[in-house]
Amino acid sequence: MSIDPASSWLTRSAAVVSAQAAGRPLVALESTIIAHGMPYPENVHTAREVEAVIRAAGAEPATIAVMGGRIRIGLSGDELELLGRSDNAQKVSRRDLPAVLASGEPGATTVAATMICAALAGIEVFVTGGIGGVHRGAQETFDISADLQELVKTSVAVVCAGAKSILDIGLTLEYLETHGVPVLSCGQDNFAAFYTRDSGFRADYRLDEPEAQARFIRTKWDLGLSGGVVLSTPVPEAGAMPREEIDAITQQALDEAKAQGIAGKAVTPFLLARIKAMTGGRSLATNIALVKHNAEVGAKLALALAASRR
Ligand code: PSU
Ligand code: MN
After folding, report:
1. How far is CA 131 from the centre of its chain?
2. 287 lines ligand 1 (CB under 6 A)
3. Which ligand approaches the C-alpha of residue 269 most closely?
4. 186, 205 in Cβ contact below 8 A?
5. Ligand 1 centroid vs 241 CA: distance in angstroms?
């Protein structure tokens, strides 16, 4: 039997090992949202709540991060706390993984890097807040998140509340269509826009039931059509923000980024931080509500996908 060299970089938590041994489905979670997406202590509190939602639904959460030169699949409560408090965790996307593993520094994985690690660990479903995409003005800047290429390559289902309107959502969907990445929607016809329920763009297929979502995804992979699937579900009505307010704030953040010459991997964190500051605590409440809802949808999908394998 040949030994897979990638597996020597993975360390699974005890909870993940026993879930995999028992055939209990896993749901991957990213760590950028903990290290860079929310302030302490709400980040750690939310990470724990999201894990609890997944467990209550009968699946096992596996929060993914880089720590001590290892890809960690599943973190303990203490490790979540450490990551949540740390102010030096690197933002790790596909191209950064080797460097951060080699340095031994703590790393928070983006959607792209979390997909890679989930696939290495044999996890089919990954829950996040919002995916990266084609930035507004990408015709000039070429700023297209590595998340999209990862969705092209890596066979993991990504459950999200759509994408933030800091992006050009229309071009993001065009890009995914060109590369054959299906965009499914749960609960409404349209693709969601993170803080608000409706991006104004239709998803490719509306599939409300986890069994139907699982059938779609399993069929794609059975056919050898490798690559990811986006499953978008809108933030619950009660948690959504008014569209006009978030649009105005987004425009101001974009103007500031341009004026300050922000570029490269700093663009997304800059925009997220400015929006967070300008909306005060309300955007944080929305963020927490949508991630918890995504976790519920993702856990049900993981159970249905596991059942479809038998
Ligand atoms: N969009 C959000 N929240 C986030 C991110 C994107 O609404 O936290 C993070 C995710 O980790 C995503 C990354 O994978 O930013 C994309 O960064 P970039 O645009 O540099 O690829
Ligand atoms: Mn970018």
Report:
1. 6
2. no
3. 1
4. no
5. 20
